[in-house]
Amino acid sequence: MDTREKILSWPEALRRLERNLGEASVRVVTGHFDPVLAVHARALEEIAASDGRPGVIITDPPDPLLAAEARAVLVAALAAVEWVALAPESGLEELLDRIPRNRLVRAETEHLAIREEFMRRVRARHSAQR
After folding, report:
1. Looking at residue 124, what is its pLDDT?
2. DSSP per position, the chain
3. Among 17, 20, 105, 113, which is 20 to 30 Å from 53 by CA?
4. What pTM was estimated for this model as a whole?
5. What is the mean pLDDT of each run of 10 residues along the chain (130 residues)?
6. Could you tell me which CATH class the domain 3-128 is placed in?
């Protein structure tokens, strides 16, 4: 299977969410995934194991390392993920407000901390090699 088929356009993702908002099985994760690291994969696997495979909405951090499209391809390649969509330029918050809090994981802040720690380790390793 070409995992890029799991990447939905925003209108497709919106239709899927609208159709399933009332279902207890809906689980949505928003995050930067910049870059995609093992810690992200483990977190998504944990969600999938307890609640079923989540839909993932890729958001943009300040000053991204990777293009959103590249991050979507990498996240879509994870077996734990049902579908992936890029966050729209507007309207995301209104949609997320309609998803029950226990079905939504907002990971943007955590992802910024993970990225900062990753970058710190890369810089430290690079400095040590000089």
Report:
1. 93
2. --GGGGEEPHHHHHHHHHHHTT-TT--EEEE--SS--HHHHHHHHHHHHHH-PPEEEE-PPSS-SS-HHHHHHHHHTSTT-SEEEEPPSSSHHHHHHTS-GGGEEE-HHHHHHHHHHHHHHHHHHHHHT-
3. 113
4. 0.91
5. 86 87 80 97 94 92 96 96 94 88 93 96 85
6. alpha beta
